[in-house]
Sequence to fold (472 residues):
Amino acid sequence: MPIAFDTTGLHPQDPTTWANPVTGDRVSLQYFDLVPDLPAPLEDLARLRHDLAVVYGESGCLIEAHTLLLGGVPALFQVLKVPIPNQPAGQVFVASFTVPRAGSSAVLMTQAVERGTTGVREAVLAARVGFDRWLMPHPYAPEVKGRLPFHAGDDPRFDQEFPDHPLTRVRAWAHHVIRTATVDPRFAALPPFPGPVPATPPPVPHPPVQQAPVPPPPVPHPPAPSPPAPQPPVEQPAPPATSADGPGPAVGSTLTTVVPGLPIGGYLPLWVGAECTFWRMHDPAEVLDLLGRGLLARSPWGESRFRELVALDPDSSSIVLLDRYRADDGGIAAGVAELSRVGGQEASDGMTQTTLVDAFQWVGRISAAAAGRGECLAVEPGQHEGDLQEPYVLLVEREYEGQRLSVARTAPAPPADLPMWEGRSAVSGPATPESVGTGGLLAMYAMDTWGVHPLHLCLTFAPVPDLVRAEE
Fold:
């Protein structure tokens, strides 16, 4: 098969189908030795989205569709929902990747069925959002009145509140696939998909009844499946090709999804798996304007924790800054930033007292931006995975006894002579513009006792925990 992906936790049903024994979700991988029957080229994303929204509206609703890179190869990613056939309630959610070439395609998808009590996510969120703002025109085709409505509750920002919901599960699976899947180089080297408009639109998927195994929805050969993160999924749009007009990954480049570390003195650490690599930014401002502000693609990092992702192309020494959400017009963009690979010594030499203070003041500003999104920020070693663990500094803003407070909490407890902390494990004060920079400096002083190099730190985001309190 042209696509290799992580099957950990899945049980094979046949050579092309796997099942999750815990959730019942199913994954399938198909190869089609036929000219792709997509309704428009990947380069014409607006038309592609419109036509798919019209077609899938006949039996359900297209939630989102994006072009991205899967294993460095242009692909179509979609998420859709359809009713469970012959059932009075409940939906099937599908996330899929289609990798088209000129004369063939590969499709990787997962499907998750609502089981038990259905509609809980919708009921909770409709009451919160307001019923007058619940139903929305479809962003890709406003004239479409689908069998299932396009509504505010399917927005990925709510996934973390409903971790067991099938829509959350298919997006989380897709985020992991974006980070880990690879494409056979021989398949990637085939002529790219030219995108001819088919004579007929792709057929609409019809998932099976809830008790039966859920096969892939029938899509054209090769399918225009329905699938990000990243996401978001982690969502990973295809970067522009290298040309005389500017830098960036070339068509066919293999991109690696990596986690950025703490930028200091114009240098950006990038975690490639467990390895920390170092890069000099040619234009630090273009990276810092996006990094840490909730704008970039994310990957789950333990229970309800997330880190941002970028896509690295070592051949062109550049990173693709992947947008987290689609724009108002339904589009999703990717900025490209030039880098130069350097050794750890050069990156360390760029860290002076001035650049270190600047970096942690930037951390303070990032924590304030996170608070505006209802999130907290953890500064911790890049090797940390899973739940919050020592050492860390947690920066939070929250209401406490009628007052908006800025709280910094650290573990292990700092020594009594450490500036600003003075032996306390938590420091709090009124949330003011001045306290923003102070939170970053608190993180800097705590970090200095960990024995961890600042270039080996990462930022991790999470919802504000209920247990955080303003304590002296």
Summary: The CA atoms of residues 269 and 278 lie 5 Å apart. The chain has a mean pLDDT of 82.
